[in-house]
Amino acid sequence: MAEGLYASQPAMRPRGMRWGGLTVALLLAGCSGVVPRTQGPGPFAPPPRGPTTAQPGRLPNEARDRVAVLVPLTGAEAGIGQSIANAANMALIDSGGGALRITTYDTATGAAAAAQRAIAEGNGLILGPLLSPDVRAVAPIAAAAHVPVLSFSNDVDIAGRGVYLLGFTPTESIDRVIDYAHGRGLTRIAALVPNGLYGRRASNAVIKAAEDAQSTVVSMQGYDRSPASLAVAIKKLGDPKGYDALLVADNGKIALVAAPLVRKAGSSARLLGTELWNTEPALAAARPMAGAWFAAVSDSLYGQFSAKYRARFGKGPFRLASLGYDSVLLAVRISADWRPGTPFPEGRLVDKGGFSGVDGAFRFGRDGIAERMLEVKQIGAGGMTVVSPAAQGFGG
What we know:
Blueprint: E1 2-4, H1 21-29, E2 52-54, E3 65-71, H2 78-95, E4 100-106, H3 111-120, E5 125-127, H4 132-144, E6 149-151, E7 163-165, H5 170-183, E8 188-194, H6 197-213, E9 216-223, H7 227-236, E10 245-248, H8 252-264, E11 270-273, E12 293-297, H9 302-313, H10 321-334, E13 355-357, E14 360-364, E15 370-372, E16 374-380, E17 383-388
């Protein structure tokens, strides 16, 4: 095990913390002078073998609540996993969470083995894994030990029975953008959905969102993520005058391919997108995307988070790194009610008032899926502008 002792923070257990948007902004704005004292390689060097541990403050180990971060630190997803782990440790430092001891385990060498080791070493809460198959491997092991799992996945089928999803799911973003479109008179919806599991979930979400908004789904076509297949699917949508909004339920790169094909087919429909568009900066430079709307978590604090991350680690974070930061803020808040050596108070996760972090307000339902407040953004030549802000919190 490689351990790094970070610069001293107040060695005290926080009481009654509630991380609001303002508090998170202050965390991001402050603490910039806290520089980690590291042992071993830097944050983007090959990680050491075995788990790594961050320990702010000076409380003895037996007085700390132990939290495991399970992410890929080697292999194809190592960049994302390391970014999440870095952000988690950054949140611990920023919050002065001296009552927590965070240890990071590599799931790329075996998620089940990582979970078994984390539980054997006394961790009472698991943050992660990132990938759906890894969550499926970890879930029964964690459940047998009565250790909750806060996963960074967006696979809603794995939620429940002690597994909570922090990942961004398509259902909420589709519902939000279709409702917004309805409010602006766009009620005839067409949709392009990729073949496969994500597409099936997106299709169901489109139908339900249209029903809720009292709009009509006039056509929906699947495709296999090739330009030729997209062109065929767009043609099969039918009369381009028959729909006034077209949802492309896929990532931004696919939207960049689809948009010119849609215009070439003669459609002037408003393009709609999902949370997957939020990670594609090239959208703003594409003329066929002008005026498109999509729903995603608010970026109002992410810019501060990204700048602070870059200053600390010398490189910008992956977009999903915010999940690592927010999950630790949540754990720090609940640690006020978590006595070391006792099970994590899982009931505190289902809080009607919710939590707040870099990605705005969120709360877990009884199904274990994070409900989030989303904003609607419009794509234009000057970049992306917010046309409908996210709500700041829940009504209770």
